[in-house]
Design brief:
Length: 238
């Protein structure tokens, strides 16, 4: 994880780890990523963060969050079963609880405007990308616990623009044909990433990347990655 947020470094959170605590549930469909985050932030005696549960899909997430009632949920946007927005919808009563509300911080590889806006409209308190450092993530968790809104710097503009406008975003029928994972692959292909780099970014195999690319080309009726890049650029998805 590299330095992404413009927030405080998180050193204070580590130094005061024995004095303040936050209970966290980690929701991500990649076990290896969950393990890495747990190792990075879950040293409770140092960071003050206690990971009290994990989940890999929407149903698991709702069950674990309801059972553990954490202060903060680290939520991936793209999950089996309906995505992060569905988790937020099904946990709406927990977010609006008059006492000890559960707060959500999106943690995703995606930096797409529609993903950011979707989960914020769903009730998340912030959105950071997976390039964030461990210390900044700890700091962001505590800030969300305290009621602040936290964003990686370039993502905050998406939210400001979206809520400053009264116009609903236009529907793109072509884009709607793609699954959330296919959209992720599409953006990375359009940015010039090789299949191996995409596989590493998304924690999937190269063969799976190839399958997603084939599906995207078929659904959009495109012939190659050059046409795909032009298509994505025209829609400002890159």
């Amino acid at each position: 994880m590299s330095d992404e947020t413009g927030a405080a470094t998180g050193t204070d959170a580590e130094a005061a780890g024995t004095e303040r605590r936050v209970r966290v549930v980690l929701v991500d469909d990649h076990r290896m990523f969950r393990t890495g985050v747990q190792a990075e932030i879950g040293r409770t005696e140092v960071t003050g963060v206690e990971v009290v549960g994990e989940a890999a899909d929407v149903d698991q997430a709702v069950t674990v969050i309801t059972a553990t009632r954490p202060e903060v949920v680290l939520l991936d946007v793209h999950l089996p079963g309906g995505g992060g927005v569905e988790v937020l919808r099904r946990c709406a009563s927990l977010m609006s609880a008059p006492e000890n509300p559960v707060r959500f911080l999106a943690l995703s590889v995606s930096d797409a405007a529609e993903d950011v806006i979707g989960v914020i409209r769903g009730g998340a308190r912030g959105y950071v990308t997976k390039t964030i450092t461990g210390t900044d993530l700890v700091d962001s968790i505590f800030r969300v616990q305290e009621g602040d809104a936290v964003f990686s710097p370039r993502l905050a503009g998406f939210v400001l623009d979206a809520f400053a406008s009264t116009d609903a975003p236009p529907v793109d029928e072509d884009l709607d044909r793609l699954t959330q994972r296919e959209r992720e692959v599409l953006r990375l292909i359009a940015r010039g990433y090789a299949y191996k780099e995409i596989a590493k970014q998304l924690y999937i195999s190269v063969k799976t990347v190839e399958s997603h690319v084939s599906a995207v080309l078929r659904k959009l009726q495109l012939s190659n990655r050059h046409e795909l890049t032009r298509w994505a650029t025209a829609r400002r998805l890159v």
